[in-house]
Amino acid sequence: MGILVQELLKLPIINGQRVKLRPVTLADAAAMFAYASDATTADYIFPVHHSLEDSKNTILDFFMAHPAGQYGIALRDNDLLIGTLQLQNLDEYNRKASLAFVLHPSYQHQGYMQESLHALIAILFQQTSIQRLYALHEPANQASAKVMLATGMQQEGLLQQTSFIRHHFVDGCLHAITREQYFKGVN
């Protein structure tokens, strides 16, 4: 187990003002299915869930099997899961990881994802040895671009045909923030 994974496992819950980032459990299956079964929401991040069993399997095989850096986004007042925020492609040697996120459509455009991403980025740069965080979005997904820019990430370029989604290759706009950029923006 690498240093970054050890550091991430020490951060099981991250609190924001209205949300908390916490582990995803089987008790969240119905809440996950509510947004993961919606093709317009899930399509950018994972295959659409066709049954509650699909959501349970995702939780078991992904969130519970490899919990480091995998967070459910829950409302602080009632602990309802409204989305997920994950570190992927963790590169221990270069101290970098990609970010992936999804939010239930009923909670989009209300600042929940921006708050969640701000909280995660702050904790990662303040309490771990991560050097760089990056994320991709399809050019048509401008909502994700706005969230990334609002949290201090800068667009670095366009990766052509970089991801295989919906049975074809799609372009990805690359956004990133480094430790140095984060601390310059905080002060």
Description:
The chain is α+β, with helices and mostly antiparallel strands and 187 residues long. 35% of the residues lie in helices and 32% in strands. It has seven helices and eight strands, in the order H-E-E-H-H-H-E-E-E-H-E-H-E-E-H. The protein has an eight-stranded mixed beta sheet with strand order 1-2-3-4-5-6-8-7, sandwiched between helices. Strand 4 (81-91) and strand 5 (96-103) form a beta hairpin. Helix 2 packs across helix 4. The longest helix is centred in the middle third of the chain and has 16 residues, at 112-127. It is globular. The N and C termini lie far apart (33 Å). The mean pLDDT is 94.
Beta-strand portion reads: 25-35%
Largest sheet at a glance?
8 strands, mixed
What is the SS-derived class? alpha+beta
Give the % helix: 25-40%
Mean pLDDT: 94
Placed side by side, the strands forming the largest sheet appear as 1-2-3-4-5-6-8-7
- Listing every helix as H and every strand as E from the N terminus to the C terminus, the arrangement reads HEEHHHEEEHEHEEH
Radius of gyration: 16 Å
Number of strands: 8
Coarse morphology: globular
* Helix count, DSSP H or I runs of 4 or more residues: 7
Distance between the termini: 33 Å
